[in-house]
Amino acid sequence: MESPPLLLDGPDDAPLTVALAHGAGATMDSPFMAAFAEGLAAEDYRAARFEFPYMIARRETGKKRPPDRAHVLLDTWRAVIGELGGDGLVIGGKSLGGRIASMIAAEMEDAGTGVRGLVCLGYPFHGPGRPTDPDRLAHLETLRTPTLICQGTRDTLGNAEDVAGYTLSPAISVHWLEDGDHGFKPRKASGLTKDGNWRSAIGAIVRFLGAL
After folding, report:
1. For the chain, which domains are there?
2. What is the pLDDT of residues 41-85, one digit of tens each?
3. How many CB atoms within 10 Å of residue 207?
4. pLDDT digits (tens, 9 = 90+) for 104-142
5. How far apart are CA 137 and CA 59, in angstroms?
6. Number of neighbouring beta carbons within 10 Å of residue 127
7. Following CA atoms 106, 26, 129, 168 in sequence, which dihedral angle do they give, to the nearest 10 degrees?
8. What φ, ψ does residue 151 adopt, rounded to 5°?
9. Helix crossing, 96-110 with 70-84: angle to 10°?
10. Burial category of 98 from C-beta neighbours within 10 Å (exposed 0-12, middle 13-18, buried 19 and up)
């Protein structure tokens, strides 16, 4: 498989490139994805966004499609990594995109290769209404790749109470976005803002990258 087109932000000579995949329902240029890519570029990191085949088809036809099968999503990530090169590369993304990136990170460890780091923005620890999902958790227990998960405390796919009950690898750190939902948006009554939580998450990613 050839790499899909890449949307690049930030300097070509950046010390690290962060490849970001979108979530199940929104494109690579959604406000969420744009905010994080542009936020990293403003800190002199290079951000590379791309879309899975089903989203490319949706963009071309205007018709919504369900996500591709897992092997297609995985192959797309492999192609993107092949295009960008593994050295100096951090992978991740929003929800589905981050989950598939985490599977690739574990796969590359098993192959004796690896990426520099993994950043998951709203990791889908389980489906809606399900407290656990072994398929989404097992590889996170043994992951060796330095990992940052940015998660809303009331994310319906893994809130603070849920995650406290999981066994996660010591290579994984979690940055909590107070009162945030799956897109880190807090309730108005909290006194917090979506933009504030997005900035908090970007700051956490910048600190994480600086420590790699």
Report:
1. 7-210 (3.40.50.1820)
2. 999 999 999 999 999 999 999 999 999 999 999 999 999 999 998
3. 11
4. 999 999 888 889 999 999 999 998 888 777 889 999 999
5. 31
6. 11
7. 20
8. -140, 135
9. 70
10. buried
